[in-house]
Amino acid sequence: MSGLRRALLGLGLLVSSPWGWRLAAKAAQAGYCPAGRLPPLSSPVGHRQPGAAAMQTAAAAQGIKYLGQKEAQAIDQELFEEYKFSVDQLMELAGLSCATAIASAYPASSFTVSQPAVLIVCGPGNNGGDGLVCARHLKMFGYEPTVHYPKRPNKPLFDGLTTQCQKMGIPFLSEFPSEAALVDEIYGLVVDAIFGFSFQGNVRDPFGTILDTLEKVTVPIVSIDIPSGWDVEKGKPDGIQPDMLISLTAPKKAAKHFTGRYHFLGGRFVPAAMQKKYSLNLPPYPGTDCVLRLL
Less crowded by CB within 10 Å, the N or C end of the chain? Predict the structure, then answer.
């Protein structure tokens, strides 16, 4: 690997200077871009499943319950208090589900150059933790993830997740690119792990600026559980529009407003008694899979 290529993959160092992103863009134009760009949407990769497979995924989504914010919070609380799941336990299962869904829809082999580069933007809460776990598993799956984690909580759980990523050679960006074209140039996929279903109120910087940029990117965006900035129940038609939504535990009401190509259900950890109590009507997962495609 050339020195320039290594530098671009380790963009956490490159962006420390004010001209770092410009240098990355110029290098990409000169043929040094390490981004794992995906084929255009018209390519066979990522098309809707034909025939019987499409009918199967459509049937899986029928009758499934879409949760409001309070009900989603109640289920989470019951998992922790009654079933004694730990936060890190569910976070590991959720992050693995996200990485598995991404690998299913966007195989590393479908990226148009040798380095399948993925940018993962993590928020300050549990959704950001899911993103860190997802990054670690994507690395194990053969992708080249890079993490932007601007607001890190001072808690051992998140410190540990960060250390794990760093020890695996996953670079962390100190700054987010200010122009959508730079994201498009360097990465083939963006994972939105900023806000989850507990988010309320107005989006504050730096995340407001980040979401403004993500609204303009052309590479596919994958949102974990809720597209960041959306109302959990009403959605947001003028917000980011992800290509993939990965609903965890059960879809939230905002998922009814999702118009992208892929909708996956992940987080295969809801006990049968809880499914019955909340009338979730979750479809059966195939075999031992940890994700199920709904769309």
Answer: N
DSSP, residue by residue, 216-271: T--S-EEEESS-TTSBTTTB-TTS---SEEEEESS-BGGGGG--SSEEEEE-----
Distance, in Å, from the CA atom of 145 to the CA atom of 165, rounded to the nearest integer, reads 10
- pLDDT confidence of residue 113: 63
Return averaged pLDDT per consecutive 10 residues of the chain, 295 residues in all. 39 39 39 45 39 50 89 96 97 98 96 85 96 98 97 96 98 94 95 89 87 96 96 90 97 96 96 96 95 95
CB within 8 A of 277, min separation 6: which ones?
A: none
Helix (H) or strand (E) holding 117: strand 117-122
Q: Residues 6 or more apart from 42 whose CB is under 8 A from it?
A: none
- Predicted pLDDT of residue 60: 57
Give the other-Cβ count within 10 Å of 2's Cβ.
9
Q: CA 221, CA 223: separation in Å to the nearest integer? A: 6
Tokens 């459509």 sit at which residue?
A: 58
> Of 103, 49, 33, 65, whose CA–CA distance to 249 is shortest?
65
Look up the pTM and report it.
Answer: 0.83
